[in-house]
Specification:
Elements lengths: L2 H4 L4 H21 L4 H20 L3 H12 L1 H8 L1 H12 L2 H4 L8 H16 L4 E5 L6 H4 L3 E6 L2 H7 L10 E5 L2 E7 L15 H12 L3 E5 L6 E5 L2 E6 L1 H13 L14
Parallel strand pairs: 1-3
Antiparallel strand pairs: 1-5, 2-4, 3-4, 5-6, 6-7
Helix pairs in contact: 2-6, 8-10, 8-12
Length: 265
């Protein structure tokens, strides 16, 4: 009996190995540069120690590890909750899955937003506008003032005027409506971001780290326009570039994002 007769290796095995490798690679991408990598290495070390304990037939330590195994899965889910959430979001944006989801024409929203952002950029009015895509943002919408208004250039510029009580915080847009203003977004603690970035930019990146939202930022200090998507930031773009990025994000939610590098605003 040869080795190949003992080990049956077929197409199903190739597919399974490919899927497992893909999931592990995506999980590594999500954890890269975060404390989750050190935690994963620690768990791996514990697993190797457990194997050694069992091979050495150490009864007491084997009993301790058996209790640990009972809560291992739950512990992993709790510890890696942000990474698992982002992995599920990534899978949800897969073209095969998103193919059956229709996307409405949002050209009017894009036009009104670009006009408002261009005006606020010229006047150096700080702004933070988040666009909901496939991931719901209700938990963030509920932190602000509900508006439920049609997206318009005039309304966006009015909201972010310094004397307006709604200017501090983010505007969240879903489909063709401004859901709320003065919303609180999570602030990114990523070490990859420039220390010169302000709170608006870090909040934009923070939201896109946890959801698949698309966020537009206008710097109050320089008037520079920035966008954030998939936890990355690109700064100092033109209104025409903003139109391209925003149209792509709203019209093709399943498309892979462009390479974005963290820069100063």
């Amino acid at each position: 009996m040869t080795f190949f007769e003992v080990v049956s290796f077929g197409v199903r095995d190739v597919i399974e190995i490919t899927l497992v490798a893909y999931l592990l690679y995506q999980l590594y991408r999500l954890m890269r540069g975060t404390i989750a990598v050190q935690i994963a290495l620690g768990l791996g070390a514990l697993f190797l120690i457990q194997v050694g304990v069992e091979l050495a037939n150490m009864t007491m330590l084997s009993t301790i590890f058996s209790y640990f195994n009972q809560v291992f899965v739950l512990a992993v889910i709790i510890i890696f909750q942000p990474e698992i959430r982002r992995l599920l979001l990534l899978l949800g944006k897969n073209p095969i899955i998103r193919r059956f989801v229709s996307t409405a024409d949002r050209s009017e929203v894009v036009n009104e937003t670009v006009m408002a952002v261009e005006e606020m950029s010229n006047r150096q009015i700080g702004a933070l506008v988040a666009f909901q895509r496939s991931t719901g943002l209700r938990s963030y919408i509920e932190t602000g003032k509900l508006l439920q208004a049609e997206v318009s250039h005039d309304l966006l510029t009015t909201i972010f005027q310094g004397q307006n009580p709604l200017h501090d915080g983010a505007v969240i847009i879903n489909d063709r409506r401004i859901e709320a203003a003065r919303c609180i977004l999570p602030v990114s603690t990523s070490m990859k971001l420039s220390p010169q970035l302000g709170l608006r930019h870090r909040a934009a990146v923070g939201l896109t780290e946890q959801t698949d939202a698309f966020v537009v930022v206008v710097s109050e200090e320089t008037g520079n326009i920035s966008v954030s998507r998939d936890g990355a930031l690109i700064s100092n773009i033109t209104p025409d570039e903003l139109r391209t990025y925003l149209s792509d994000a709203l019209s093709h939610p399943s498309a892979s994002s462009r390479s974005l590098d963290a820069t100063t605003a």
